[in-house]
Amino acid sequence: MPVIIRNNDATELCITKGQEGHVVGWDAKLGPHGQNILETLFVKLDRPAKTIKIEGLPENVVPLVKNSRSIECLCPSDVTLTISRSQVSVLSNFAMTDYASQGKTRPFNVVDLNSCRNHLSYYTALSRSATCEGTVIFRELELLDDITKLRYDGQLPKSINGRLRNSVLRQYQQLKGKGYCPQNVMGPIRWSELYPMQTFQVMTDSSWKLITKSTTDKAAEEVEIQLLKQSKNVTRSFVPAQGSKALASTLKRKAEEDLNSDEPKSKKIRVSFGPTPEIPIGILWDSVNYS
């Protein structure tokens, strides 16, 4: 049975969380009520990081013992009960979600894309494959190939006229029956009348709607523009009272319009320099002793 280890019991022996393996044996004892209780599980590791050799055991076979965990339960009567559970920290590894498969590379990757929620989930599931030959997709690809071949040969009935993949498959299933299986389906995943394929659910296409700017929005925008123009005209025709000081206008205007205000402009002080004097300024230096 394939299993996956869920606890870091011994990292030096590659007994780590996420390590995969197969059960090769176990050791059990009798419980208080005469039932068999698992004591030790012997697992052969699949592709460990290094070769593990324990005395008395085959290569890459490690023992996993059960661990005890306690849980406190608070009852409605405020009584606290402690429940202790002993279990080997492994899970069956027949399948796993796309989230749990991250970081793993599988030589043989069997994926079911029917429940993927988005393209990220598709990518995670398919990118686990090491090769294309080792990838098996649980999807109706063989049925789609059969439909495409019939359409190419002009033998597809006119009743199969769906626009979506699901609707086409459902129409084809109603025509052929749930037990019909194409010849190119591999043996392990073939279905039959005894084990029929599940019925395809009815899927309707989402309604398309073209989003355009409504006429009411255009009318409201035109009214707003007219009101803005009127407010600008009223502001420009306003005459201030005599002796009052105009405040800064909130309307947009050019920079040169700010210079045309009624405030007196400050005079610039012009500094003029006369002609350069012919007589040197300062003391004449003696070139003999510089005095």
Overview of this protein structure:
This protein is of the alpha+beta class and 291 residues long. Among the domains are: 2-92; 95-139, no CATH class; 140-203, no CATH class. 19% of the residues lie in helices and 20% in strands. The protein has helices at 119-126, 141-152, 165-176, 215-236; strands at residues 2-5, 20-30, 36-45, 61-74, 80-88, 90-92, 109-112, 135-138. α1 (119-126) links the parallel β7 (109-112) and β8 (135-138).
Quick gist of this model?
With 291 residues, this protein is an alpha+beta fold. The chain has helices spanning 119-126, 141-152, 165-176, 215-236, and strands at residues 2-5, 20-30, 36-45, 61-74, 80-88, 90-92, 109-112, 135-138.
Using brief descriptors, characterize the structure shown.
alpha+beta; 291 residues
Series of secondary-structure elements, N-terminal to C-terminal: EEEEEEEHEHHH
- Strand percent estimate: 15-25%
Helix content: 10-25%
The overall pLDDT, averaged over residues, is 80
Strand order of the largest sheet: 5-4-3-2-1-6
Q: What is the C-alpha radius of gyration, as a whole number of Å?
A: 43 Å
Counted beta strands? 8
Enumerate how many helices there are, as a single number.
Answer: 4
Largest sheet entry: 6 strands, antiparallel
Structural category: alpha+beta
